[in-house]
Every structure is written in structure tokens, then in C-alpha cells.
## 1
Amino acid sequence: MPPRAKSTAKKVRKNTKKTNLTRLYNQMHKMSLDAVDNEIIKRFKILIDASEEDVPKTDIDQLISDPKSADTSIFPEGLQPYVKHFVFMTKRDKSQKKTAAV
């Protein structure tokens, strides 16, 4: 049986750092409170690693600075549930700080 010839074509996978998505991931990780948050964040990290492109810096900056007024429809469809969960986490975080002060 003859040996198999190796493919000469290299798999070209652009190993880009998705710094903007990673910033969002880190923000979410800081606000994580329970197992549900941790599971969602874990799945988000897998999605970040598998994604081909990063999102624009301005979109992430706007989302992090003012999550309540951010438009989630500008994000790709696969990222929208994670963006919406980030908005939920920020609202929950603010309401917990408010009740802790009372």
C-alpha cells in the first residue's frame, strides 16, 4: 500500500485577536454572579474563538459606556443574545447596588 501524499496546501486561518469582543467578555466576567452567567460567558468565549471577525470598537465602546441606550441590532445575529445578556447584567448590577445602599 503506497503512503499517502501530504497536502501541500496550508490551511490559512487568520489568527486575529478579537480585542473588542474580548473587552466585552471581560466586562461580563467581572459582573458574573451565578452559574447561569458563567455558562453564558463560557459559551460567549467559545463563540469569540470561533468567529472570523471582530466587531467595531465604536460599537463596543458605546455598549459598555451606555448599555441601556445601545442598539443591539447593530451586532451580528449570533452575538445578539450575549449583548442582550450584558445589558441585563448591567441593569441587575445597578439595581443591586441601589438596594445595597438603602
Note: Residues 19-101 form one domain.
## 2
Amino acid sequence: MSIPEDRSSPASDDTFQDTVTDTQAVTAAADPSSKLDRILAFVPRALSSHAHIIFLTILGVYLVLLPLFGVDVSARAELIGGNYTNVTSDLGACIAAGLTVHLVKRDRQRSRELKRLFEHLHQRHDSLEQQVARAANAAERAEAAAAKRG
């Protein structure tokens, strides 16, 4: 959402600076700079990949369904598989929580930006109303002066 701004007012400079900061933040998030950031950016894609979902399904069948049907699964396999599913579940929860926090922050930021834009719009509207009122008064005075002459 972009409103043409009057660059002469201080409020518009603040809005412009916020827009530049927002753009830089989005660029930084879209283009991770450090190796750790690149690795962490890959984790959500890996956890939600088809291969990982199929693997977890097979692991669930192996660790849950087969023992229900009397197939012996080693305690070591259950421990490793159970730990793996716990870790991936925790990672998924962390990603979801992080995304929620990010969305809340972005919503609050957008609300502040909208509030500033509405304040700027109201100031501009009030200014225009005053200018129209002055122009109408000037026109009335000019008409009255013309009527006196004529």
C-alpha cells in the first residue's frame, strides 16, 4: 500500500525511512548472509518435504503399527526412531512459533504504518479543507468587491 507522499513534511520522511528499513529487512530475510542463516533457512523446507513426510510415515508404521501386530522391534530402533520423531516435532513447533512471532511483529508494524498514513491523510485533508475555505472566502470577498464597483 503506497500513498504518494509530500516530501516536504517531516512525517513523510519518517514513513520513507521506515519503508527503506522494511525493504532492507525483507532483503536480509530473503537472502541470508551467513552460512548458519542459509542452513537454518533450509530446515523448514527439509521438514516439510515429501521425502521427509514419507520417511516419518514409514518410521511411524515401523515403530507403532508393527509392534501392535506382534512384530518385534528392537529397543535401540525404538529409542533412535522415537528421539528422531521428537526432535523433528520440536523443530516443527519452533518453526511454527517463530513464524507466528514474525507474523505478529509484521502485523503490528503494518498497523503502526497504517496509523501513520491515516494521520498523514487526515492532516492533508484538514489542510485542504482550510485551503478550500480560504479560497471560498476570497472568492466571496472578490464577488462582493466586484458588486460594489459595478
Note: The chain is about 85% helix and 0% strand.
